[in-house]
What does this fold into?
Amino acid sequence: MSADAPKGGPEAQYRAFLAQGRFMIQRSRSSGRHVFYPRVAEPGTGATDLEWVEAKGTGTVYATTVNRRRPEDGGSYNVALIDLDEGVRMMSRVDNIAPDKVVIGMKVKARIAEIDGAPQIVFDPA
Amino acid sequence: MPHPLRGKTAIVGVATAGTGEAHGRSPIELLGEAAVKACADAGIGLAEVDGIFAATSTHALPTLSASEYLGIRPKFTDGTNVGGSSFEAHMLHAALALDAGLCDVALICYGSNQRTASGRLVSMSEPQPFEAPYRPRHPINAYALAANRHMHQFGTTREQLAEVAVAARGWANLNPEAFARGPLSIADVLAARMVSDPLTSRDCCLVTDGGAAAIMVRADRARHLKRKPAYFLGGAAAQWHRTISQMPDLTVSAAAESGPRAFQMAGLSQKDVDLLMLYDAFTINTILFLEDLGFCPKGEGGRFVSGGAIAPGGRLAVNTNGGGLSCVHPGMYGMFLIVEAVRQLRGEAGERQLKRCEVALVHGNGGTLSSQVTAFLGGPAAL
It folds into this structure.
């Protein structure tokens, strides 16, 4: 792990980076493959040579849905799977667009937003 | 060379309890009633049960709870929990344990009162830390995302998804035990309340109560019992992910792996199958599993089910009880797939009885398209 990595396991480190305003993901030094969500070893190989790298923050909508809710219950909201350009996938949502206007293939850009008091990655149309 | 487990064990007793609404009854009571009725169906005393296989949505230690409730002291226990597919996995594990002589009478059982207790899916599943912040609705969002992807890649339509629900309702209308009966059209499904695009409330399985159980013994004993045996011909499990964001390709489930392995173990091919019991938590499931199990090419599932192809009178008999969509779905549905397969193999399915049913494919799904377990049951002619 990088020398400046926060303390704790990979999940705690990921969240600590987010709290610093940094979107960091892991990469195996030997395979060059990126890993998300953060783990103690590369899935499949068990390689423990994972280092933290700054995510580019660019990605593409892989799949999307809208949770339909009445306006008085908070309104409908988007849930999407985003493929980061590094080749890993994460669940998130696309903001600053109507939830039903999000489509597969849409280019998106990551942003750190506060959700329930904690920093999380959300996306905006790129 | 047939697999050494092929035909070595058989299901000889099945039962359900409190399917639909079971007011004032607890999960363990429904499990217990189904277990006792399955023993009676088999003509085997409860005291003979020495192997127990169980998973529920409410018991952290299900084999302990079930065994204590029933007052049995099993020699072999298996509480494997792979969601709704647990019971197909239990069947495979029971075949192994019986064949190895580790137990002689296996009980596989389930019970849930989720409809009358809460009216919604009951799950002990822990929150997924990398998904929970986005408030996904579990489990429907995962299946909606898969449907969205399938429509994008293969041109599958909402009408084709609706065909699955309409076919299931057609079968349910022939099954007095089915909870949701009455007319249902493609237009009805499309006009139903949108829950998670592209899935409406009619693309979703029911929330019911219900218990179900099966008794399994070695074939040498099965031949001397009162019911026609449903022989275990093969089974295989596969799992590629837990959370939907880690599923490699949302249009290909691990049934693409469990299916071929189970077919090989059973020495069967698609043309040998008279009945498919596919875990239809949502309409997209049936389409994915028809493809992944080799009944149509990848991407063709929507077109394959069109025109009533899997409805009564269609070209392939799928989910003849009415499925999770219209018969019963008490949280974990896998046990009910087995019960219907056995009833069809015995010729006890009444108005919905298939003219020919010697081989049934039972396919369980668990989690969010996560665990896939394929198994084959067959009548004596399939041996």
